[in-house]
Write a structure and sequence with these properties.
- The structure is a single chain.
- The chain has helices at residues 6-11, 59-75; strands at 19-22, 26-30, 38-44, 82-85, 101-105.
- The protein is of the alpha+beta class and 114 residues long.
- It has a domain at 1-77: HIT family, subunit A, CATH 3.30.428.
- Strand 2 (26-30) and strand 3 (38-44) form a beta hairpin.
């Protein structure tokens, strides 16, 4: 945990949010500025500023983020499709520097994304 990190504060329940999943390693909550009808942020409890800070010892939790995304997509009935996005760095659009996976669904997406 990082004392000055917004997402670490959400994980510690110091900042209110709509938590949709949590366990000892991962938590997920509704994005406050959704870009799709379903927009959930899935985060490891371990603080990483971005994917660049993860190591081989973190591969299990990184894979778990995707599996939780699939579980939440099924729960939200996103059978037509959904997108997962992991931005790393400001140039990629990362605005909160705690690694997080976006689960987006409920509308059609185009390619390339941007």
């Amino acid at each position: 945990m990082s004392a000055d990190c917004l997402f670490c504060k959400i994980a510690a329940k110091k900042i209110p949010s709509k938590i949709v999943y949590e366990d000892d390693e991962v938590f997920a909550f509704e994005d406050i500025g959704p870009q799709a009808p379903t927009h959930i942020l899935i985060c490891p409890r371990k603080h990483f500023g971005s994917l660049n800070e993860a190591g081989l010892e973190d591969q299990a939790v990184l894979g778990k983020l995707q599996l939780i995304a699939a579980q939440l997509a099924r729960k939200r009935n996103l059978l037509a499709g959904y997108r997962t996005v992991l931005n790393s760095g400001e140039a990629a659009g990362q605005s909160v520097f705690h690694l997080h996976l976006h689960l987006l669904g409920g509308r059609a997406f185009r390619w390339p994304p941007g």
